[in-house]
Amino acid sequence: MMELLKPYILSFIPLFVAVDAIANIPIFLSLVGHDSKAHRNRVIRDTVITATGLAIVFMFIGTWIFSLLGITIPDFQIAGGILLFIIAARLLMPGMQKSLLTSAQDKDIGVVPLGTPLITGPAVLTTTLMMMNSFGVVPTLVAVILNMLFVWVTLAKADAIIKIMGPSGTRAFSKIMYILLAAIAVMMIRHGIMGAFFP
To answer: Between the ranges 44-58, 74-88, 184-198, where is the mean pLDDT highest?
Structure first.
């Protein structure tokens, strides 16, 4: 049973780290904190649909694009790992996520910036392709859907979660997630180098 679940678990965890739903709760509340429940629900729906759709579409066309361009898996592992590491390092700096909100329009916040780039950004897109190449389509698709369901729940229960964890707890959780993301990036680079130079 454990062997059967292993690819699903190993696909879910890196995506969970990359999505980092908990870290986006304060941003979500800052954008819709004083809005009606109906509007908040509409924003959550737009966020999850945008994030899920973008991740799934990229999961299927990303490999085709790379094949068309002649990019190999080790190439992508090295480039994707470097990109993930840079993203993780930048997100560890104070105020980097808030800078993504400067161009947000109230009517579209579920699409931009919440759906993308905060939920499904470069880190999620890169990780999704990596997981599909490592574990296959079905485990990755299940991992994407489960993570997006978790996003839905966390945003719907954002007020309760922020009361339990507090702003400091949320920030601390985010920092841990970014450090894990950086570690995953280093692992991807290492695998890419081994695949490219020591096949």
So the answer is: 44-58
Question: Is there a contact between 81 and 187 (Cβ–Cβ < 8 Å)?
Answer: yes
Question: What is the pTM assigned to this prediction?
Answer: 0.78
Give the residue carrying structure tokens 């999505």.
Answer: 19
Q: For residue range 34-48, what is the model confidence (pLDDT) as tens digits?
A: 789 999 999 999 999
d(CA 87, CA 51): 18
Which position has the token pair 């429940």?
37
Rg of the chain over CA atoms, in angstroms? Answer: 17
Coil, strand or helix: which one is 142?
Answer: helix
Please give the C-alpha separations between residue 37 and each of 67, 107, 109, 137, in angstroms, as whole numbers. 45, 15, 15, 36
* Contact status, residue 80 vs residue 129, Cβ threshold 8 Å: yes
How is the chain split into domains, by residue range?
36-197
Is 131 in contact with 15 (CB distance < 8 Å)? yes
Spatial separation of the C-alpha atoms in residues 185 and 14, rounded to whole Å: 10
Output the six-digit token pair for 33: 């904190």
* Axis crossing angle, helix 25-32 with helix 137-156, rounded to the nearest 10: 50
> pLDDT by residue (tens digit) across 73-123?
788 778 878 887 887 787 777 665 545 444 444 568 889 878 987 899 777
